[in-house]
Amino acid sequence: MASNKLAKKLKINRISAVWIIPIITLIIGIWMVYTHFADQGIGITLLANDANGITAGKTVIKSRNVDVGIIESVTLSKDYQQVILKGQIYQNMAPLLKNDSIFWVVKPQIGREGVSGLGTLLSGVYIELIPGNEDNHFDDKPFALSDNPPLAGPNAQGIRINLNSRQSDVIPRGAPVMFRGFTVGNVETSDFDIKDRQMKYQLFIPKPYDVLVTDNVRFWKEGGINFSLSPRGANLEIPSLEVLLSGGISFDVPTGSKFGPPAQPLSTYQLYEDKNAIQDSQYTNYHEFLLFFTDSISGLEAGAPVEYRGIRLGTVSEVPFYTPDMLKSLSVLSYNIPVLIRIEPGRLTQVSKEPIDLTSLLIKEQQVGLRASLKSINFLTGSLYIDLDFYSEVKDDKIDSAKKEFGYDTIATISTGLSQIQLKLIQTLDNFNQLPLNKTVSEFNQSLTQIKQLVNSLNKMTSSKEMQNLPQDIKKTLASINATLEGLQPGSKFNNQLNTDLKKFESLMDQLTPLLNTLNDKSNALIFAAPIKPDPQPKAKGN
After folding, report:
1. pLDDT at res. 204
2. Cα 510 to Cα 516: distance, rounded to the nearest angstrom
3. Which of 343, 422, 495, 537 matches a 20 to 30 Å C-alpha distance to 478?
């Protein structure tokens, strides 16, 4: 009988050949997934206003005309206000991405520099990438996609300056920034701030010109043809064609000022209207005076100079100037017209190095004849300025002040210049008009009649026998007197000419009176038409 034997179990410590194929397949799959994600690179998000010309899967991202990525999807934001572009930057191009990297759409366009992007007519639009600063990093934030190329890259060295402007004209992006006529930078951005209701500009001035921007420079607007008239003559300034078409911005220190320390990046400045306006901007220390004029202020405007014998001391602030308190005691149609001026002691720094208490000096010198008057800057334009000078004919009387009543010191005024000449001439003509010319002529005719009677008596005397016996010299004298008197009697040529001249003179005075009244209201009325005044209305009896 056969014996029963138990089977032995052997433990196998090696992998079965059956698992080799699945393991190899898994390794290949992991490698393919890794390769797929490694080739995809880094994902980016771009925000744009529209997706004109951009197609998912076709629009490429380039840098220096080399493909560095691609746009994968184009969708709208949740509020439907923006376009969201999802893209990939190739892994080997990842160092190009920084937080300050710049993206913009390259397409055909005509700009200040000419025609650009013509190559995209066949290939389609693409997105250009400018690498950011090496010191920055990328933290997966969305980028803004611009429609225009940047004027300066993130790595460009220089200084950026902010400007605020309340002027109506807009200076476009890309306009030149100039220093004494030489272009040293450009306007990077030009936006309107709805909250502050003003234009805000950002300028970029690259090296080495950034050292020209100091903390005391002033910026003003360029553009247009400037024509001005001054006592020195006419001045015509025509900018370059580029500035004339699109405008520009200039900067410099005011005349007489020295350059200050270098400006800090992103410092904010005010944009002035023109170069003349920057001169007045440096005089921030001033004292206000109130002037009352009895002459017409037509032609006097805010910004007009206040001078003493050609030395500028200040600026006209407001014309006319009325406060609520003044309107309580003064009528808008009052005899005296108030004008507010600013006396600026800083203007005398070039004349005197020592500080001058100009306010106290002007108040004191009025006691010895200092007065303010209106004078013409230019007869063609009719512009006026305020002149301070001494007048010996002014009495040393007490000077009225509006300090207590209105809160302002005053400077007494006087009529002078063309206004005073016109006033005196009008008064002279009025005196002539008041002369009793008709009565004078009548009395003169009566005198001539008496002369005629005297001549007849002399004729009888000279024809008498007694006169024949007089000496020859006496005869000649009497004959001469007789001839003279005959020339003065009525009906003579001299008498008729005298009557005619007197009538012409009287007519001339009647014609000159309205002309001088018009010149008194508007000094340049001989060149520019004066406003037409309504015909005077007769007043009813008893009014």
Report:
1. 92
2. 11
3. 495
Alpha carbons within 13 angstroms on the beta-carbon side of residue 111 total: 17
**156: pLDDT confidence band, cut at 50, 70 and 90?**
confident
Task: For 4-125, list the strands marked E by DSSP.
Answer: 42-48, 60-63, 66-76, 83-89, 102-106, 109-111, 114-116
Checking if the pLDDT of 47 tops 60, the result is: yes
| Cα–Cα nearest to 82, from 50, 115, 104, 106 | 50
- Residue from 390, 417, 294, 281 nearest 342 by CA: 281
Q: Which residue would you say has higher pLDDT here, 529 or 385? A: 385
Whole-structure pTM value: 0.54
Q: What are phi and psi of 426, to 5 degrees?
A: -65, -40
Give the range among 43-47, 224-228, 247-251 with minimum mean pLDDT. Answer: 224-228
Q: 377, 383 in Cβ contact below 8 A?
A: yes
Q: Are strands 383-390 and 305-308 parallel, antiparallel or unpaired?
A: parallel
Kindly report the three-state secondary structure assignment for every residue of 30-44.
HHHHHHHHHHHCEEE
Distance CA 403, CA 314 (A): 19
For β-strands 287-293 and 409-410, DSSP reports them as parallel
Pinpoint the alpha helices (H) of 17-98: 20-40
